[in-house]
Amino acid sequence: MRRLRLSRRSVITSTAVVVAAAVGVPAGAAAFGSQDQAERAIKGGAAKNVILLIGDGMGDSEITLARDYTVGAAGRLNMDKFPLTGAYTTYAVDKNKKPDYVTDSAASGSGWATGQKTVNGRISKTPDTNKAVPTILELAQRNGYATGSVTTAELTDATPAVLASHVTDRGCQGPADMAKCAVDTIGKGGPGSIAEQSVNHKVDVLLGGGKQRFDQKITEGRYKGLTVTEQARKLGYQVVTDAKSLRDVKSVKGGKPVLGLFAPGNVPVEWTGKLAAVGGTDAQRCVTDNPKRPAGTPALDEQAKKAIQLLEDKQRSARGHSKGKGFFLQIEGASIDKQDHAADPCGQIGETAAFDRAVKVARDYAAKHPDTLVVTTADHGHSSQIVPLDANPPGLSSTLVTNEGGKLKVNYSTNTPGQSQEHTGVQVRIAAQGPQAYRVLGVTDQTELFTTIRTALRLR
Questions:
Q1: What is the pTM (predicted TM-score) of this model?
Q2: What superfamily does domain 46-457 belong to in CATH?
């Protein structure tokens, strides 16, 4: 029998085509014309930078709904164009470490932030002993990486909180919100609220909403009598509150981190429209310029681009000390989830589209810096479902007229009408490119994302 000799490149190329086929990409296109990108992703190696993008509540239904409405059923979003795609499980645990099949954002975020599962409502602490568990951001800081967190929620909300804080209950966002976290108060020897911990960690870039939490007065400890914003300034933070002041920030050189607070609470959504209703709605087009969104509110992709620039600038100026290390950045599209809870299809689609633009920013950066691992995923599934136009679902529904002129009906039935819609326990998509990206293939668990990032950055 004649033996075939295959070059290393031919083996990798064959693997890339197989992977492309496995994720539904035509072999000839090799992941939308990115065969070289797929080859790099299949290889291991170290990453200089990691950009983690979290679409909160962005399950397959939410992705499909945004795709169908904005680019058409046969179109592709930016998040669809990653060379490697898998799925991961999202369940939380109870205090006995038994599965709790439907997670909240606190437990799910703690999973990828620490590599350990915990109980719903808890932020980066163990499920049974309530002890703090080191997070991926903390490890990155200790190893000389610049760090950042960007969100459309309050900066003290669960997903950003899991990176730079440890509290018993996710509701303990500011100094005035500590009723459920007695052991975490400064007076009891704890680290304080999520807002206080976030700035004490000296995260280089913090951008989002939640000004109302940072405007609360501190009642204990070294900064007693100051607001958390004033504490941040004492710690050297440059505080910005709108798109112009964010653009004007030149760098985080000299140890001057940036705190952006762009709304009292969550950042207002980009799109609006009629909420889903019992019996449905008349066919509607979404309003893509929400009149309740204040002028000067930076879009998520603007924040993402600025965060990357600031983090890169910091590390460029610190090369002698950081030995050429890069950055870790988490970017969250938070209100996909929040509008899903509200059964607001237009708000939900608009936030998914905004998140997708941030995905493009990350992928464009990685195209020029192939030593960057980019991962996009969700923290849990949610309630929206695309159903036939002639269906009469028992919950809330709305009919939309998509950008390609078709009609689409979306249904919300995970809770009684009038109540907040609920998360679901479904597995969700995870996709990646860059060093160690192959780790997302197949069905993994949320906690394995921690290991992927830690391995990529070679964190001790």
A1: 0.92
A2: Alkaline Phosphatase, subunit A (3.40.720.10)
What are 364-381's pLDDT values in tens digits? 999 999 999 999 999 999
Nearest CA among 302, 431, 311 for reference residue 358: 302
Residue found under tokens 């058409």:
72
Q: Which amino acid is at 127?
A: P
Q: Which residues pair with 284 in a beta bridge?
A: 400
Domain boundaries, the chain: 46-457
Torsion of CA 211, 357, 379, 21, to 10 degrees: -170
Question: Is there a catalytic annotation at residue 322?
Answer: no
Annotated catalytic residue, options 34, 61, 105, 397: 105
Token pair in block for residue 209: 């909403």
Residue range 9-65, pLDDT digits in tens:
443 444 444 444 333 333 333 334 456 666 666 667 899 999 999 999 999 999 999
